[in-house]
Specification:
280 residues; alpha/beta; 7-stranded parallel β-sheet; globular; binds D-galactaro-1,5-lactone
Length: 280
């Protein structure tokens, strides 16, 4: 059985993924926060990936890395810099030094969020990040490309939409990603024999998708879910109108917001330290 490292394992996406992959792989799960075990076979290793020594510790002896860890919304540069720039570099570099061949990088729809909703985009479009967070995801994609070309790492970038059991609103009808479709796309990333450097969109088979996901389909992805089943209910409760920019672009509120509430706040001790630093 392959051993797979999941960073950011305490987060929403990590929790769905651990449940979906349980029994299929030996899961080494890591986070800055503590987490509840989903099954007894999971091995938890706490780590702060902004430290290279921690990144080296967790990437030892694994067959593949799924690097979910990081700052997951638009926010202050310091948090994004530590987690998504320094942390992401440490993870790629530590994986290389430990001889890990395969790296799954969950990037984001916000790497291309400034494409208008009227445009369908594929995996080869020029990047158009909608936020500092989006820029940090583009940085991870660029690192992936470098590590694939220079060091022969097999890198699989999933531009994730929004993972959840249901789409949350009108925008998410286009980018919804059900947990079972997430698991299917991840398993392709772990198992497909011909991954070199790939970009795929992490969404279900949504009728309202803004993406031409043919690269994922070429690799065998056959999504089982479609947000359309929820469309009538969501559209009926969503008020018409709204901010012009937010409504025009795929990234929605990320195109205008400076600080979106962080769904995965830092543990108290670490947050206090960061606050202290800022004041100086
Ligand atoms: C993301 O990239 C975020 O990680 C997630 O929290 C959601 O905000 C999602 O995008 C989205 O666009 O809905």
């Amino acid at each position: 059985m392959k051993t797979i490292l999941i960073t950011g394992a305490a987060g929403d996406v990590g929790t769905h993924l651990r449940r979906e992959l349980a029994g299929k792989y030996a899961l080494k799960v890591s986070d800055l926060r503590s987490l509840k075990k989903i099954n007894p076979e999971e091995q938890f290793v706490g780590a702060d990936i902004s430290k290279m020594s921690d990144a080296l510790k967790i990437t030892k002896g694994v067959d593949a890395v799924i690097h979910l860890g990081g700052y997951s919304v638009e926010g202050p540069w310091e948090g994004i810099l530590n987690a998504n720039i320094v942390g992401c570099y440490n993870m790629f570099e530590a994986a290389r030094r430990n001889g890990v061949k395969r790296f799954l990088f969950p990037t984001s729809n916000h790497a291309v969020g400034f494409y208008p909703r009227s445009t369908t985009i594929d995996d080869r479009v020029y990047i158009k990040p909608d936020s500092r967070y989006g820029v940090s995801k583009v940085f991870g994609e660029a690192l992936g490309s470098l590590y694939a070309d220079k060091y022969g790492m097999q890198v699989y970038c999933m531009r994730i939409g929004n993972v959840g059991t249901k789409p949350l609103d009108k925008r998410r009808l286009s980018i919804w990603f059900s947990p079972r479709d997430l698991a299917q796309l991840v398993i392709i990333g772990i198992e497909h024999p011909d991954i070199r450097f790939e970009i795929v969109y992490g969404i279900s088979g949504n009728k309202r998708a803004w993406y031409d996901n043919s690269n994922a389909f070429r690799l065998g992805y056959k999504p089982k879910d479609d947000s359309e089943a929820y469309a009538a209910e969501i559209l009926a409760r969503e008020p018409a109108g709204g901010d012009v920019i937010t409504e025009k672009y795929q990234g929605g509120a990320f195109c205008v917001a400076e600080d979106i509430p962080n769904p995965a706040p830092l543990p108290e001790k670490r947050a206090a330290k960061t606050k202290g630093k800022k004041k100086k």
